[in-house]
Every structure is written in structure tokens, then in C-alpha cells.
């Protein structure tokens, strides 16, 4: 049995999986619109939560949040489950997929996905796939993975393994699906306004004591970066810097990538809602994404010890602080502009 869903690759796995789930119910929504309506843009740097012994840094909301937010915003009834038992998790997947005949989103670990090239396998428990069918003879599952060009398959053994990958954030067979759709989908403009306001609050209006989140977190990371060499030595300082670059450019689509996606959302929202002032903010967000890319470039020079151009950790921290302050000003300005538009 296989559900009829056309595969469309995406830049980010959770956006792409959500778009696939919505498409099955006749809602065509672009990846930037999914990300923007989910208020997915975020930043956290949490020293007391470690991934591979390195403090966790993320450039978006935590896995699963996007699906919860967008279904609630659209008035869609959905469900998300985790399990202690692997067998129960697999039975539930088969029930929803084969008996209810609806596609299922699953959060999996990348490292054990057999169709991934070895050089791209990392210990990251936050990848999303859309399960759309199962072969009755072989037991293989048909999967739409947003980062692959074509549909792929996973054996029952591999599916169980990737759904229960252990690590900093054990997955516990996390799965999610749409249970029912509203009779009428709400108008887009009020949804866009609500989503933008939420993203602005999350990024630029966090209390000072929550120093690890939003733009507070970017500036907090810049302050900590200045002390790395003194507190942990050059080798570990470079290791920490490399992890930041890895999260920026590779794992989970990357920090700069999310800024570009959000810029595309603002541009599309301007076109579909008539709020043309969002085009200016789209361009500004793209410029911020370019600055994140520039930071990665400069940091890679330090990591690889290029002799033609070198930077100190203080210089990198200065650049990072500048980005944080620019993002804070951007989101506060965007918040005010949308608020003013609502009162016109």
C-alpha cells in the first residue's frame, strides 16, 4: 500500500515533511510559508546541554514545534506521540499508515539512515521524514525524505533503529500526523501577522535573564567566545568554534539558511497579503543571512589556520555581537511595522 503524494525536495526536513502532509489534504504551501507561519526562526545557545560534549547551539525552534504551531494556526487537528516500547511505536505507525491511510511524519536519527552517503551521516536526532507506504511482502516502508531527490525506502529493521536512536535527545519513536481538517482554512493575512509577531517576540523581546535565547543568546555566545582560549585552551576553543560553523552551514539546514528561508517567507507574504513593506524586511533578512555566512567564512579561516588571513576569537566575537544587535533591531523594527499596519 502506498499513498499518492508527489515528492518535492526541500531545504529543511521539517518544513518539507509538513508540506508533504498538508499536500495530501490538498493544501499546497511553499517551504518558506510553512517555516514563516510556524514562527520557526530562533536562536539558542545552552552551555548546560551538550551534544557530543559541546554546548548546544541551534538556529531554529526545537524539532516538532513547527508542526504543532502550524496545525494549531490553521485549525487542523493533529497528534504527536512518543513511546517507551519500540514494538508499540511500530504498531502505531502501521495503524495510522495502513488502517487510517494517512501519511505519517517521523523524527529520526540521521547517522543510521542507509541511503545517506557516509560523509553526511552525523549524530543528529532531529531529522524528519514522511512515511507514505509499506510493501506487504518485504515490509519495507516508502519514505519521502525532503533532502533526497526521489522517494526512498527503509526496511522495518532500519525504521525501528532510526526512530529509536539514542543520544542527547533520545527520539522514543516520535511520530506525528494530521487527524482531521477544518471545513474552511482561515484567511492568510491574519495568520501571517500573528506568526510574524510571535517570531519577533521570540527573537527580540526575551527577558534579560533568559540570556541564552533569541538575540540575547547570540550576544551571550559572543561573550563566551571571548573567554574560550583562556578557559579551555586553544584546541578545545577551535573544536567549539568548528561546532558553531557546523550548525551554521551543515546540520539542520544551517543558521544562514534559515535566515534566507525566512526572507523568502516575508517576500511571499508581501505578495499574497498586500503588505508590501515586508519586501524591505525580506531584503534586510537576506543581508543578515549573508553576514552569518561571512562569519562562517572567517571562522573557517581560524579553524583551518589559513596564513593569508587570520582572525582572533575577539574579532570573531565582535562580528557575532554585531549580528546579534542587527537581528535585535530588525525584529523590533518588523514588530513595530506590523503593529502600525494593523492600526491603519
Task: Describe what you observe in this structure.
- There is one protein chain.
- The protein is an alpha+beta fold and 344 residues long.
- The chain has eleven helices and eight strands.
- It has helices spanning 13-24, 31-37, 65-74, 86-99, 156-163, 188-204, 214-225, 228-249, 255-273, 278-304, 313-343, and strands at 41-51, 54-60, 77-81, 104-108, 127-134, 141-144, 152-154, 175-180.
- The strands form two sheets. It has a six-stranded antiparallel β-sheet, sandwiched between helices.
- A hairpin with a 2-residue loop joins strand 1 (41-51) and strand 2 (54-60).
- Helix 1 packs across helix 2 (31-37), helix 7 (214-225) runs antiparallel to helix 11 (313-343) and helix 9 runs antiparallel to helix 10.
- The longest helix has 31 residues, at 313-343.
- The radius of gyration is 21 Å and the shape is globular.
- The model has no long low-confidence stretch (mean pLDDT 90).
Chain-wise SSE layout:
Layout: H1 13-24, H2 31-37, E1 41-51, E2 54-60, H3 65-74, E3 77-81, H4 86-99, E4 104-108, E5 127-134, E6 141-144, E7 152-154, H5 156-163, E8 175-180, H6 188-204, H7 214-225, H8 228-249, H9 255-273, H10 278-304, H11 313-343
Antiparallel strand pairs: 1-2, 3-8, 4-5, 4-8, 5-6, 6-7
Helix pairs in contact: 1-2, 2-9, 6-11, 7-11, 8-10, 9-10, 10-11
Amino acid at each position: 500500500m502506498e499513498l499518492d503524494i508527489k515528492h518535492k525536495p526541500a531545504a529543511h526536513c521539517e518544513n518539507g515533511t509538513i508540506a508533504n502532509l498538508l499536500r495530501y489534504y490538498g493544501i499546497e504551501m511553499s517551504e518558506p510559508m510553512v517555516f514563516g507561519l510556524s514562527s520557526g526562526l530562533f536562536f539558542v545557545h545552552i552551555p548546560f546541554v551538550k551534544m557530543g560534549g559541546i554546548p548546544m547551539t541551534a538556529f531554529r525552534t526545537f524539532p516538532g514545534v513547527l508542526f504543532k504551531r502550524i496545525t494549531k494556526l490553521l485549525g487542523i487537528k493533529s497528534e504527536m506521540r512518543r513511546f517507551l516500547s519500540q514494538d508499540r511505536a511500530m504498531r502505531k505507525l502501521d495503524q495510522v499508515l495502513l488502517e487510517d491511510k494517512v501519511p505519517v511524519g517521523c523524527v529520526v536519527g540521521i547517522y543510521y539512515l542507509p541511503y545517506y552517503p557516509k560523509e553526511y551521516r552525523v549524530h543528529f536526532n532531529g531529522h524528519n521524514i514522511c512515511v507514505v507506504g509499506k510493501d506487504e511482502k518485504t515490509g519495507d516502508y516508502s519514505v519521502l525524505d525532503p533532502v533526497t531527490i526521489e522517494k526512498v525506502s527503509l526496511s522495518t529493521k532500519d525504521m525501528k533503529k532510526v526512530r529509536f536512536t539514542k543520544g542527547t535527545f533520545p527520539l522514543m519513536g516520535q511520530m506525528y500526523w494530521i487527524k482531521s481538517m477544518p471545513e474552511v482554512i482561515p484567511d492568510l493575512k491574519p495568520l501571517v501577522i500573528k506568526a510574524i509577531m510571535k517570531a519577533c517576540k521570540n527573537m527580540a523581546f526575551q527577558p534579560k535573564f533568559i540570556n541564552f535565547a533569541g538575540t540575547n543568546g547570540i550576544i551571550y555566545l559572543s561573550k563566551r567566545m571571548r573567554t574560550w582560549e583562556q578557559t579551555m585552551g586553544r584546541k578545545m576553543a577551535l573544536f567549539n568554534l568548528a561546532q558553531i560553523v557546523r550548525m551554521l552551514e551543515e546540520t539542520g539546514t544551517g543558521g544562514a539558511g534559515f535566515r534566507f528561508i525566512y526572507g523568502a517567507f516575508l517576500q511571499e507574504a508581501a505578495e499574497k497579503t498586500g503588505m508590501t513593506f515586508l519586501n524591505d524586511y525580506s531584503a534586510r533578512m537576506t543581508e543578515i543571512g549573508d553576514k552569518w555566512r561571512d562569519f562562517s567564512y572567517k571562522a573557517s579561516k581560524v579553524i583551518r589556520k589559513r596564513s593569508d588571513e587570520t582572525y582572533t576569537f575577539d574579532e570573531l566575537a565582535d562580528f557575532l555581537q554585531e549580528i546579534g544587535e542587527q537581528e535585535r533591531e530588525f525584529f523590533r523594527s518588523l514588530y513595530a511595522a506590523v503593529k502600525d499596519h494593523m492600526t491603519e
